[in-house]
Sequence to fold (46 residues):
Amino acid sequence: MIDIAAFIDVLPMVVYGMLGIFAVTAVIYAVVALLNKIFTPDEENK
Fold:
């Protein structure tokens, strides 16, 4: 069975890991959105 005490002890580490994944995903999203804005050609130049 699951050791509940060990599970509770590990939860903070799991939360930090999930926050880290979320932060990295947000940074990648922001960089892609910024690059898309910078390198999208203007409608005038088409």
Notes: The chain has a mean pLDDT of 92. Residues 1-40 form one domain. The helical segments are 4-39.
